[in-house]
Amino acid sequence: MEFNHHEVESKWKKYWAENDTYKVIEDPLKPKFYVLDMFPYPSGAGLHVGHPLGYIASDIIARSKNMKGFSVLHPMGFDAFGLPAEQYAMQTGQHPSISTHANIETYKKQLDNIGFNYDWSREVRTCTADYYKWTQWIFLKLFNHYYCKSSDKAKPIAELINHFEAFGTDGLHAKSSEIYHFNAIEWSRFSEKEKQEIVMSFRLAYRKKGFVNWCEALGTVLANDEVKDGVSERGGHPVEKKPMMQWVLRITAYADRLLESLHHLEWSDSLKIMQQNWIGKSKGAHVNFEIEQASEFIEIYTTRPDTIFGATFLVLAPEHPLLEQIITIDQSATVSEYIEYTKKRTERERQSESKQVSGVFTGSYAIHPFTKKRIPIWIAEYVLIDYGTGAIMAVPSNDTRDRVFAEKFGLDIIPVVDQSKYPNSGIEEKLGQMINSDFLNGLEVVDAIEKILGEIEKQNIGKAEVQFKMRDANFSRQRYWGEPFPIIYTSDDIPVALTEEDLPVETPWIDSIQAGIQGQSPLVHATEWVNAIPDFTRETDTMPGYAGSSWYFLRYMDPHNSNAFAAKDKLDYWKEVDLYIGGTEHAVGHLMYSRFWHKFLFDLGYVSTQEPFKKLVNQGMIQGEINRLFLKKRKSEGERTEYADLNYVKEQNPEDYAAVEVPLKLVKKDSNGKSYLDKDGIDAFIQFRGHDSEINVLKSTTEDKWMLESEIGKMSKRYHNVVNPDEVVAEYGADCFRMYEMFLGPLEQSKPWDTKGISGVSGFLRRYYSLFWNAKDEFILSDEIPTKEELKILHTCIKKVNQDIEALSFNTSVSAFMICVNALKSINCSKRSILIPLTQLLAPFAPFITEEIWNLAGNKGSIQKSSYPSAIEEYLVEDSVNYPVSVNGKKRYEWNVSKSKPKSELETEVLELEEIKKWIEGNEIKKIIIVPERMINIVL
RNA sequence: ACCGAAGUGGCGGAACUGGUAGACGCGCUGGACUCAAAAUCCAGUGAACCUAAAAUUCGUGAGGGUUCGAGUCCCUCCUUCGGUACCA
Question: Of A108, A361, A568, A778, which residue is 20 to 30 A from A12 by alpha carbon distance?
Fold first, then answer.
């Protein structure tokens, strides 16, 4: 009997929908389990085969937990605000809300095709007002709170103001951007604007000047992604850093807690280390260097204060505010030229090229605080204004970049750490003894750090300080398609927060989205909306992508609540996410922001857990195949050009050709697995590229084949290599697609998509199905008592699959199913007591076919409501064991012996074996290693 | 450049805490069925040596080390992928 997946899938999809099979309720009698998928952004290309990888894994977990008696929350929704929809709108005129909703519908249909058990009544979309109302609400909470260091939690701004009114800054321990000292009387005399500015620097959501990628030609601010080599990726226009007032979230207030509670999470060590490094807590010192012939100091930050005697010059970031005062006249032209150059460089570029450091001398000198020597002040792009104080003391002896810099510009290098006792240590390692360092001489580095810190504080030239690499998070985007801020400004530019009653602040409809003016968001054109409140103007920036995605997992708990982001009893029931499956691309960004928001909501008493995601697993990426043909570069405008294949280009100068991506659909494979286009493929390719009369010559070394350059890379619309799961599901069925994705390899690993192995899984499902049918195509299950052998086959599989689900090792569980079905098939098993538990075991993996079998076997209701089988050990016991016998670590014989044979007998008998005798003859036996039930090794 | 991960047959991968390397599947080869093909079923399939069998040797990105024993642990290096704060 053939399994007709089309019929069976639509039948059970309908049944599940009609019977609310996947409706989630908070059942107080059951333990809860919350399994979460990454929040997808609904792109125009639709879902590709890479997206569902994690979703299938979580679906298997969710279904098996359900069958094990848990109340399971396994929701899905959409991260629906974002740059691509806005860009698409600018190109095509279609409003982002229309394209976004259309994309979401496509995604949902595609997801349903794969048979996920989502309860769609809990779907959330970040771009709907009833959702972003609560994103804005959280922002208001951040705006209206500050971080109290004494109680180590967020507290209302009103309490801060009370404190100012009563005591000024006396006794205040709060995180702020600036350090203030005033008393209550002074506070009362400040103007309203001054008071607001002071309070602003304490808020958890505050305003600060930040730099954006400004592209004059496009009239817009660009994402880092859209900038390559200092020019816009679109059109190649120059881009420079432009300072703008922006909203920023004080995530640094939570840095220590974010670091501390990492230890309690069931995350991989590598992920924790990445977060730890991102937070980047370091102990070091701020040190003031006097500037020669100026009253100001340059404050530097260093993590190696012990090497201060090796500091031979200072380096400032090109954006450093003191620059104006220290540039000498004869250097000013060189310096401004250099500043212009760095403005065009991205942060990444500035740090990457350590082999070709660049920088210029300012013309001024600083005074070394200990040696009192003059040391030159330079500026260089490798010093970033946002890190530390934007200035460093350069120690070429113990810092690689400083050394390269000093060597290039001929600056002094004074060795200060003698590492001769540690021959294999790098120059930056904190190992060795101090030399050339006055009172530090002879000390070990660790002790020298302690001593110099004391000295720095004693002489009042600086301060020991803990510093974080993590910076406060920029929260403003100059975009239309994002959450509007619940903020308005007075004519004095004082920001005023709206109240909770004013929420949501809805995005105004703009028919045609155009770049704003001077880097502002397109919302400035919605003048009616901007000026809707008399005497005030609205904030026109919007929130970034991570605003909506930093708390979405809480909304799933109670998605339609209009009185709260989620009701207390729902929050208390589901608590936190038990298992989160998502890609490493979110390893720091999204996960860090979500943890921060969650801790803030915890401080305010809304959520009951410190951390949102108890266990987290990173899924790998499914990669695509990128195929390319070559187009000869034109030497002049309008010149005739030609396409050429790989073999042809190899014989030419490759510099004359540019690679052009070929849609995967057109690509054929030859017997060696090499990609090529045939005649039809070439025609289709030309048509795909659009008619271009200047391109009509095709060059190839053979007549009818055009060989392609082929590599493994991202699956993306831009490479035309997106594989739609719908096509695979249509051809092989959803169950097969699900199991094949799992069978491809370990969840955590990246792997290329290739359908050529899918026939194996398809064959497995056919064989499984055929177990239930006799030669006359009748459905048949016998009630005979199972044999010992059959029970062993079944329970081996049950044990393995249960273990694998716990370990999220789904590729091996698919193998276990294959082994089981192959074994049952070879003995023609058709017993109910074997095949029905097998079917239940398979149900989370292949929900459609198992539902069908369950039903044919005469069961009522969904198999998903039945209980999951667990292994019975007594069926698995073996009485003999196969020992590999090695001589000197090399395996020489396989020895089958009874399990009960004592070690002493094994030891003597193994030497009697004919196969072993010949290896040990004439040698003295040094020892015999026996690992019970594992192996025997004879050492000569 | 920095942080993190990965590298095993022709291919995807398996190998629990250091203990039989290559499970399972694809592909390939041969056979059965068939007028033929597809599908299905059976057998073989890391490399070298060999007429064959048996045996042996080599073999987990490269080089070194620890160990009775290393794909697994340590050091150095190479390659690929992810992230680096406005892609999501």
Answer: A778
| Tokens, residue A851 | 């539902």
H helices present in A327-399, as ranges: 329-343, 347-352
- List the structure tokens of A169: 């800054």
- Encoded tokens for A602: 């915890």
Vertex A469: Cα angle to A468 and A471 (nearest 5): 90
Q: What is the pLDDT of residues A304-327, one digit of tens each?
A: 999 999 999 999 999 888 888 888
What phi and psi values does residue A909 have, to the nearest 5 degrees?
-65, -30
Residue A928 parent element (H or E)? strand A927-931
Expressed in angstroms, the distance from the first to the final Cα of chain A is: 61
Å between CA of A756 and C1' of B10:
14
Which distant-in-sequence residues (6+ apart) come within 8 Å of A273 by Cβ?
none
User: Which residues, in sequence order, are CB contacts of A732 under 8 Å at separation 6+?
Assistant: A5, A740, A758, A761, A762
Phi, psi angles (nearest 5°) of residue A827: -105, 10
Handedness of CA A798, A802, A803, A807 (dihedral sign): positive
Instruction: For residue A543, give Cα distances in angstroms to A169, A208, A225, A693, A832.
Output: 32, 15, 18, 46, 58
**Cβ neighbour number for residue A577 with a 10 Å cutoff:** 24
Question: Over the Cα atoms of chain A, what is R_g?
Answer: 34
Q: How far is the CA of A267 from the C1' of B4 (A)?
A: 13
pLDDT digit string, tens, across residues A460-499: 999 998 889 999 999 999 999 999 999 999 998 999 999 9
- Which among A631, A673, A633, A505 has a CA at the least distance from the CA of A136? A505
Domain at A878-939: CATH code:
3.10.20.590
How far out from the chain centre does Cα A204 lie?
Answer: 24
Whether A545 sits with its Cβ under 7 A from any strand B atom: the answer reads yes
Between the CA of A91 and the C1' of B43, what is the distance in angstroms?
A: 61
Which amino acid would we find at residue A849? I
A689 touches strand B (CB under 7 A): no
**Which tens digit of pLDDT belongs to each residue from A630-678?**
888 777 766 777 888 877 877 777 777 877 888 888 887 765 566 778 8
What CATH code is assigned to A733-875? Answer: 1.10.730.10
Contact between A224 and A241 under an 8 Å Cβ cutoff? The reply is no
CATH superfamily of A281-468: Valyl/Leucyl/Isoleucyl-tRNA synthetase, editing domain (3.90.740.10)
Which of A265, A557, A210, A233 lies closest to A386 in space, CA to CA?
Answer: A210
Q: Which of A274-283, A347-356, A531-540, A838-847 has the lowest average pLDDT?
A: A347-356
Q: Is the CB of residue A74 less than 8 Å from the CB of residue A57?
A: no
> Is A590's CB less than 7 Å from nucleic acid strand B?
yes
DSSP annotation string for A870-923: ---GGGG--SEEEEEEEETTEEEEEEEEETT--HHHHHHHHTT-HHHHHHHTTS
A583 touches strand B (CB under 7 A): yes
Q: Where are the domains of chain A?
A: 154-202, 281-468, 622-713, 733-875, 878-939
Q: In this structure, are residues A149 and A175 in contact, taking their beta carbons and an 8 Å threshold?
A: yes
Distance A871 CA to B39 C1' (A): 36
- Protein residue closest to B5, using CA and C1': A270
Q: Is-cis flag, bond preceding A504, omega within 30?
A: yes
Cross-strand partners of A205: A249
Tokens linked to A598: 């969650």
Q: Identify nearest nucleotide to residue A42 by CA to C1′ distance.
A: B88
Domain A733-875 identical in fold to domain A878-939: no
Q: How far apart are CA A86 and CA A100, in angstroms?
A: 10
CA A926 to chain centre: 54
